[in-house]
Amino acid sequence: MKNLISVVGPTGIGKTRLAIDLAKHFNTEIVSCDSRQFFREMKIGTASPSEEELAEAPHHFIGNLSVKDYYSIGQYEEDALQKLNELFADHDTVILVGGSMMYEKAVIEGLNDLPEADENNQKKLQEIFENEGIEKLQEIVKKLDPEYFEVVDFHNHRRLLRAIDVIWQTDKKYSEQIAISQDSRDFNVIRIGIDAPREDLYDRINRRVDIMMEKGLLAEAESLEEFKDLTALKTVGYSELFKYFEGEWTLEFAVSEIKKNSRRYAKRQLTWYRKADDIHYLNLGYSQKDFEDLLEWISEEFQK
């Protein structure tokens, strides 16, 4: 069984460093699930790994797209799984890293966003089941989705009802919609987070914005102003500076808004991760000893 170690946590907490340290230890590669770092023109404002960091371990899905490219989370799920398959051919362990919550979910669980049961469909199907038996439901599934009929337990009327309901609602085969789902994950997932007192995290975020400005975020945003209506640029670090270019805000105010909005985003991420009970936490500013303890914990998990 192959292992995926997913490094999660809020913006600015140090995920990139931890992911690289893990990749070096396992002599493996890193798959990014940070949806803002996909875009090559947005290096500074998205805190993409530096040239030095990229040289320390092979990274995938960093700067692989242009802001002009349309890219959906469904496409990412497909691409990332394909990349993992390739990497697992040579490595037992691969590192996933990024704070885009839904993108991580897409890789480790599958989106599998099927509609809720439709009441009218359920009623109709229940009647068919009661009057014409399970054979009639089997017949409908076989006709609408022969591929699903091949794999479904067709004595389970609930499965049949669910499939027909979804097909009627979506006009798409059920088999296609569940193809990319949890069932197709044939690797173990271990999730690791970095924990920090909120004040420390907010300090780090504020400092990081100042560093971005020093590195040339203003010029980067200026070069992207013509694309400001594209989805990729409706994001923290850019939309605030566009208001400065339009003369709506002063530069000082725009920078303070970037800090505020980054902290807000971090808060949303923390809320999301707090709901999970499967994240193993390391403290911010962890020592070499902490890192060695983490490696020991990981190897115990692998053995399970």
Structure description:
With about 300 residues, the protein is of the alpha/beta class. The protein folds into 2 domains: about 1-110 and about 185-304, P-loop containing nucleotide triphosphate hydrolases (Rossmann fold), CATH 3.40.50; about 120-180, Histone, subunit A (Orthogonal Bundle). Helix content is about 55%, strand content about 10%. The protein has helices at about 15-25, 50-55, 75-90, 100-110, 120-145, 145-150, 155-170, 175-180, 200-215, 215-225, 240-245, 250-275, 290-304, and strands spanning about 1-10, 30, 60, 95, 185-195, 280-285. Helix 2 links the parallel strand 2 and strand 3 (about 60). The longest helix is centred in the middle third of the chain and has 26 residues, at about 120-145. The relative contact order is 0.15.
